[in-house]
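Title: Comparing notes on inverse folding

I've been comparing how different people in this forum approach sequence design from structure. To keep things fair, I'm posting one structure and asking everyone to reply with a full sequence. Here's the target:
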């Protein structure tokens, strides 16, 4: 499926997607970090998890040739 190097790259990509999506949701709230309620944190986490799910599903789709399992590795 994935070599060790490819697996590390996938993890790095998913972590980057998670953090950037969480940051975007946080900025979108437009409030101080100390004023965020538990519900606000749940919303931030939900947005980040949804973004990671999309990237993960694309990586696992053999018909998606951009990256992941279906990527053309004849470089």
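Reply #1:
Here's my take.
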């Amino acid at each position: 499926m994935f070599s060790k190097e490819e697996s590390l790259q996938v993890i790095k990509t998913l972590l980057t997607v998670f953090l950037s999506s969480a940051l975007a949701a946080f900025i979108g709230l437009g409030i101080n970090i100390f004023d965020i309620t538990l519900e606000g944190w749940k919303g931030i986490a939900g947005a980040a998890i949804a973004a990671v799910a999309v990237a993960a599903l694309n990586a696992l789709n053999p018909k998606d040739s951009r990256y992941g399992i279906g990527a053309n590795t004849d470089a």
